[in-house]
Amino acid sequence: MTLALYAIADEYRASLYDIQNTLEDIEIEDEEKQSMIVDSLSSIKDGFEVKALNVAGFIANLKLESIAVKTAEQRMTQRRRSLERQTEWLTDYLFCQLQKMDLKKLSNEQLQLTIKNNPAKVIVSNEDEIPKQFKETVTTTKVLKANIASAIKSGESIKGVYLEGSQRLDIR
Predict the structure, then answer these.
(1) Is 138 helix (H, G, I), strand (E, B) or coil?
(2) Potential cystine with 113: which of 68, 85, 86, 106 (Cβ 3.0-4.6 Å)?
(3) What is the mean pLDDT of the chain?
(4) What are the pLDDT digits (tens) for 88-104?
(5) Three-state SS letters, 15-51
(6) Global pTM?
C-alpha cells in the first residue's frame, strides 16, 4: 500500500509519540532510548524521504514545464505580433496598388476586395476655437467629436475643426 506524503508524515509523528510514551515507562539510558527511537522510525523516515524526493522531482518537472510554456507563450506572442505587422503592411501595400490601378472592386470565387470610404472623422486643429456646446469638461476637456461631425454634416460651420475622409480596404 502506498501512502501519501502527508500520511507518512502523520504516521511518523504518531509513531514517535507512541515510542516516547512507551519508553517513558522503561528505565533505560537515554542513549539506548534514542537508538530505539531511531531504529523504530528509520523505515518510516526512509519511506518519507523517498516520497518527499519524488514529490520534489515532480515539482522540479512542473517548474521546467512552466518555464517551457512561458517561453512558448513569448514565442507565440512574438509570432502573433509579427503576423499582425505583416498583415498590416501587406494590406497597406495592396490598398496602395489598387488605388494606383484605380480599381475599387476586385473579386474571385474566394475573395472580394472593395475600397470603401471610412466614416469621416473629426480632426481638431484648434481646440480653443471649438464652441462650448461641443465640449464636455471632465477632469480634462473632452472634445465631442461625434457631435461635431453631426453638426458639420448638417451644414453647420465650426471653427477649429474640419472633417477628413479616408478609405480602407475591406477583405471578405
Answers:
(1) coil
(2) 106
(3) 85
(4) 999 999 999 999 999 99
(5) HHHHHHHHHHHCCCCHHHHHHHHHHHHHHHHHHHHHH
(6) 0.51
Percent of the chain topping pLDDT 90: 52
> How many residues does this entry show for the chain?
172
What contacts 30, CB < 8 A, 6 or more positions away? none
Contact 1, 11 (CB under 8 A): no
Beta carbons within 8 Å of 135's beta carbon, 6+ residues apart: 141, 142, 143, 144
CA 47 to chain centroid: 41
Asked if 33 and 16 touch (Cβ cutoff 8 Å), the reply is no
Burial class (CB in 10 A: 0-12, 13-18, 19+), 50: exposed
Tell me how far apart the alpha carbons of residues 95 and 89 are, in angstroms, rounded to a whole number: 10
Q: What are the distances in angstroms from CA 166 to CA 5, 116, 118, 120?
A: 68, 9, 5, 7
The β-bridge partners of 141 are 137
- How many C-beta neighbours within 10 Å does residue 122 have? 21
* CA–CA separation, 137 and 39 (whole Å): 81
